[in-house]
Design the sequence.
């Protein structure tokens, strides 16, 4: 699958580049050369084999130490549940721990501290996608009350990236041949190629802020779909007669 976007800039070389830019970016070009810039977008889709989830525990108490201790107990249970589900230690990473006072605000008075809130969050990589629903349910059961995700991706995206690159350059080349033929010129060579990759999708908020209900009897349904890898190329061709 591919979506292609093209931008054309066709001009005599003397109009396109200054002498200094000519020397830096396109050395040894003949005086009659014309440059064509083609922008192409290539995509490929693959079934994901990795999911990323962030799981957190938020606790509150009048005393900061008590809030921290309660949070630690719940988070230890959360991490134990992850390991029991087969998640390796290398796939569990603490991302943040925060202790914040909670204030009461009264007009014309200084704010007063009414208690403390502790939040502890771990990022988790799940490699067995068939167990995601069970893992999420186990996390909630063990005290996780903030969950974001899953974000589906590829563990080793290099092959998919190369397929997207091949798709993009194939279409860029076809367009260069088309424009050259339409203007009575020929494609002599590629002068430069630059690439930019699409950012991975943002995490999808899923469950459950300050959840207090017991875990459901049935596993939370998860559909992994496909992950799309995209590459944008800017290709500069030398055209001539």
Sequence:
């Amino acid at each position: 699958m591919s979506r292609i976007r093209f931008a054309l800039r066709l001009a005599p070389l003397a109009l396109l580049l200054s002498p200094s830019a000519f020397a830096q970016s396109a050395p040894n070009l003949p005086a009659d050369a014309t440059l064509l810039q083609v922008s192409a977008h290539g995509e490929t889709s693959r079934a994901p084999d990795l999911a990323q989830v962030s799981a957190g525990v938020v606790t509150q108490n009048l005393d900061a130490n008590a809030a921290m201790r309660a949070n630690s107990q719940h988070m230890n249970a959360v991490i134990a549940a992850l390991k029991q589900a087969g998640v390796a230690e290398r796939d569990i990473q603490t991302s943040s721990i925060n202790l914040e006072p909670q204030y009461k605000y009264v007009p014309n008075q200084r704010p007063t501290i009414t208690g403390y809130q502790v939040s502890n969050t771990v990022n988790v990589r799940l490699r067995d996608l068939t167990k995601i629903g069970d893992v999420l349910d186990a996390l909630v059961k063990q005290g996780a009350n903030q969950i974001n995700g899953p974000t589906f991706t590829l563990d080793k995206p290099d092959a998919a990236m190369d397929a997207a690159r091949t798709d993009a350059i194939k279409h860029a080349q076809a367009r260069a041949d088309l424009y050259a033929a339409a203007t009575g010129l020929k494609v002599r060579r590629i002068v430069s190629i630059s690439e930019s990759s699409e950012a991975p999708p943002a995490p999808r908020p899923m469950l459950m802020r300050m959840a207090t209900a017991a875990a459901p009897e049935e596993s939370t349904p998860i559909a992994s779909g496909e992950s799309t890898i995209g590459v944008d190329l800017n290709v500069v061709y030398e055209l001539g007669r």
The beta strands are 8-12, 34-46, 50-61, 92-104, 112-126, 146-153, 186-197, 205-207, 227-240. The two ends are 35 Å apart (CA to CA).
